[in-house]
Sequence to fold (558 residues):
Amino acid sequence: MLSDPVRRLDIVDLARERTPAMAANGYDAIVIGGGHNGLVAAGYLAKMGARVVVLEAREKTGGAADTSAPFPDHPDVRVTTLSYVMSLMPPTLVRDLRLESFGYRVFPMGPLYSPLPGDGAIRLVEDRDELRERLARFSKRDADAYGDWTAWIERSAALLGPVLMETPPKVGSTAPGDVIEQARFLLRRRRGMSVRQAADITKLFTMSAADLLSEWFKSEEVMGALSTDGIIGTWAGPEEPGTAYVLMHHSVGDLGDGQISAWGYPEGGMGAVSLALQRSAESFGAEVRVNAPVERVLVRDGRAVGAVIEGGEEFHAPLLVTACHPAIAFLEHLDRNELPDTFVRDIESWKTRSGTVKVNLALSHLPQFRDDPGGDPEIRGASIMIAPSIRYLERAFEEARDGRAATAPFSETCVPSVFDRTLAPEGMHVMSMFTQWVPHEWADERHQEELEAYADRMIDIHEDFIPGLKEAIVGRQVIGPWQMEHEWGLIGGNIFHGELAPNQLFHMRPAPGYADYRTPIRGLYQASSATHAGGGVTGLPGHHAVREIVRDRKRRRR
Ligand SMILES: Cc1cc2nc3c(=O)[nH]c(=O)nc-3n(C[C@H](O)[C@H](O)[C@H](O)COP(=O)(O)OP(=O)(O)OC[C@H]3O[C@@H](n4cnc5c(N)ncnc54)[C@H](O)[C@@H]3O)c2cc1C
Fold:
């Protein structure tokens, strides 16, 4: 079960540490970065009675969990700017922070629909008999194997899901406390583990999504559609080792939180999730300062004591939580000589590429889909995958790796306005295309013209199975890696603050020895998506960082 750090914090009172010297802009805790993780940390800290200020660089909170109205001619059409689907935010967190009373509501995501060029589609419908019949059109063997595959991946996800709820032990450390933590971690894994399970986990961490899927399936079309979970946000095609893990990561539903997390589209777009988190934190007394870009973290005698924002205003607190990308948190906000050399090297070598482009469209109406003359909400509201084969996806990646935007890109497309009528006026719709790949080097320059040409190609591909789409488009927004880095602080354009590659997971996320939400600076904790259980809009890093703060404070009190 997820533990509410607040319930376990009855004795800790950060307010006692307030000193007269801190009276001006003096707080118990400063959170740097008002993305959803920063807001989760602020909410929990404020709930336990701490005076908290959140310092956010942009004009609003939310970071990559944002809703905006980017079309001047249609100011009442709103899009979910970057992220678009909720996945692993634990129900306990939603309850602890009372998010539903601040407008948090999720519409369940429709089943996967992968249209094929010209004709036909893979549809992973709920009804088992219909699903079998649909898959058998591509391969009888694949239709037979599908049930075994889902059971296998769900078993592995069930084993690894609860790991996302834990703080990684310091793997390799021989300090007595760390040895105990490592042993405890392994003991907790005993249940459900067997020689076979260990082999399965090894496969997930070392294989490509394509190789893994080929152990069950033959059909190019079926494998293309099923491999998509393995490439979301990756700087790697489905044939690259390590993508099997990403596939499993996106298959986790149960964190061992007692309930399955809801996969779906939040009402009001992802910005509504951030707004609910902000309102929750404010209801517990947190202060949120926007347009407050932090320039420096103040460190005295190896301890964080405050932060300075652009313009020179200082904020003081004995406790800081940074929820910014590690390149910002450690290489910009701190002097390198305040940090161990090895740590600086680890952060400098942190891989943070993905070549993702987000295309958001305003539609005057939603044209009929080729495969859906009747307007079935299971198709219009589906998770639409442009992934007709493994080769198609791998080629898109290889082109980007060679320095060219993909000729025929991958997209996960959705039309959230099918469920959520708050996003567009009656009759109008919004379409969200999460696409890959352009060269990751495009994070260094805007490349807007090429991005527009790339979006044109993407729209052409959709026109094939949504005839009339182009004519329905009345507004479009194309966001590439440069804009993600410069406007949102997503360095290198990576959507998760750092690649979800096996060498950047668990005890390595974001650096060996500092995967426990602590940092080399006393009093400074980290809670961004670059820590264990990130990325994604889960709130897990924010929650876990506060749990470690509570642990440290209890220890000090003993
Ligand atoms: C295109 C795209 C699509 C995605 N799709 C999904 C999806 O569908 N589902 C999903 O679960 N996840 C998705 N993700 C990933 C997910 O959105 C992120 O992992 C998550 O939102 C990151 O949250 P965070 O709070 O850790 O960081 P961020 O949201 O990046 O927040 C960090 C905050 O710090 C602020 N900041 C930066 N520098 C400073 C400074 N100097 N001073 C003060 N503040 C600063 C930033 O402005 C930002 O608000 C997507 C991401 C992208 C980019």
